[in-house]
Specification:
Strand content: under 5%
Largest sheet: none
Number of strands: 0
Order of helices and strands: HHHHHHHHHHHH
Length: 287
Amino acid sequence: MIIKNNILGTFFSITAFSLFVVMDSIAKYLADYCSVSQIVWARYFFHIIFMIFFMIFIKEKINLKKDYKTQLLRSLFLVFATVTTYYAVRYNDLINFYIIFFSTPLFVSLFSFLFLKEKLTKVGLILVFLSFGTIIFALEPNNLNLSTYLFIPLLTALSFAGYQLFTKVISKNKEPFVALFYTGILGSIIFSIVAFFNWTPIEDSHAWLVLFLLGFIGFVSHYMFAYALQILDLSYITNFQYSQLILASLINVYFFNDPISTNKMIGIVMIIILGVIFVQTQAKSKA
């Protein structure tokens, strides 16, 4: 049973991380048809509709009162990460976004060290600096067009690190689906208001279908991620997060026609290697 759960949890983790990349790619595509506020609105509005139908027909019971303050903060971090992600992919290459975004595990460990008093080994600290250096190398600062938009992915990394930090805080209560509910409610309410006052007509009818698809993928991917968190440790799941860099690279080339330089290819490989070593090192230090 344990082996079966581990296999299922691993499958859900990899699938969820892949769908996260697909969502971000869809958001980048939709930027030509809608405003960012409309994209975020659709992401959460359709998400909560699917969530309600799921709760009615599957009869999933969740405890909305348990750790509700922490759950609300956790959900707000995820909503903010979604907003910054969609702005980031609109104004940056998809692969540049993901290269910067992969500073997230490093921020999670630093935040855990500062706020949760978790151990950060000397080897782990060295790997943090090496990883940041690799990220800078992969971004090719000499050829990079520096602008305020380049720093938006960093906000995404910090926001998602905050989300994962609060995930750690409440990991013992095994109520990951509460965040799925709160995130959908908060995102849909906030951005229904924002989109209402900033609404621009969506002239292309197929864009509505893609917006609907975005919400559906958003719900399915986060449901899978939530399920994986129920049966696996976050440190184990993080190992599979690096598969996003590979998928993002392929999508960047074949769908957005953005070439990947040698520096980026070397950087991506090094980010994955250093990241996996870092996660494994930190996990062993807690054992």
